[in-house]
Amino acid sequence: MRILMVSFNLMEMEAYIRGLIPNLAQLRDMPSAFVQMYCRIAARKFFFFCDPHRRGKACIKKVLLSNCLQELMELHQESEEEVTDTEQAENWFSLTSAQRICDMFLALDKDTNGTLSKQELKEYADGTLTEIFVERVFDEHVRRSKVGGGNSREMDFESFLDFVLALENKDTPEGLTYLFRCLDLNGRGFLTTADIHTLFRDVHQKWIEGGNYELCIEDVRDEIWDMVKPADPLRIALADLLSCKQGGTIASMLIDVRGFWAHDNRENLLQEEEEQVEEA
Asked: Which parts of the chain are coiled coil (predicted)?
């Protein structure tokens, strides 16, 4: 009697991707020494989106119907000339993107021990992420090491991949769920005005250190409340962030001074984009 597989574990997912590589035109010339690392990076995106409860298993049907597989299959295109540099960079499964992520991790890993400390992770994105956010990432998404003492905690490569996936997919339910756990300072399942104030205080500090104009934290807090319009006027739940369609923007405003700058300058940035389109 044949037993039909209904799910992949991580190793099976990596093997599945390895089997696809010869059929994907843009990956055929991948250096053999990089194949194993590439499969780890590629498989992690499937698990980030297809294994939301982190059970270590991804439903095969969900994998086959996922946007991830569609994105991977885009690499069938024979000529890279048909694909812009921007499209390659934005496709997680492109060789360019995989090498970028590896280079990023290696650059952050100053002590070359194969994991990232909080101090090392704070240098991500040129140091624009807030200290409290990095602390919360470690609290919620990094397991304590079994080596070197019970409180030793460093981020391994797989956890780093999840971190990057969350930040690069903030507008998705999966990315926003990851980030909400970090924003939820007290683990209550909702954010209060006090939480918003605490989170934005670090952004405000970086904002002022960058030579920007003075702003009122309470005004930003009220603006976020207006953007979300939560069902309960006293608290913001994950469901509120998902339904308001601006959850990714709000998360950026609370964890990254560059994200807040982009929101504050959104009209100018939109105008620049429109001008570039007209010139093209």
From this structure: none
- Tokens 């683990």 belong to 187
**What's 110-269's CATH class?**
mainly alpha
Six-digit token string for 83: 């694909």
**Residue 7 bridge partners (DSSP):** 59
Q: What is the domain partition of the chain in residue ranges?
A: 7-106, 110-269
CATH number listed for the domain at residues 7-106: 1.10.238.220
CA atoms within 13 A of residue 78's CA, in its CB half-sphere: 0
Q: Is beta strand 58-59 parallel, antiparallel or unpaired with respect to 190-191?
A: unpaired
Q: Using CA atoms, how far apart are residues 260 and 244, in angstroms rounded to an integer?
A: 18
d(CA 26, CA 116): 31
How far is residue 58's CA from residue 242's CA, in Å, rounded to a whole number? 23
Residues 58 and 47: their CA atoms lie apart, in Å, by 6
Q: What average pLDDT values come out for the chain (280 residues) when binned by 10 residues?
A: 70 95 93 97 97 90 93 83 67 96 97 96 97 97 67 89 98 97 97 96 95 92 96 97 96 96 84 63
Q: State the Cα–Cα distance between residues 149 and 237, nearest whole angstrom.
A: 36
Q: Would you give the DSSP letter of residue 66?
A: S
What CA–CA distance (Å, rounded) separates 256 from 127? 9
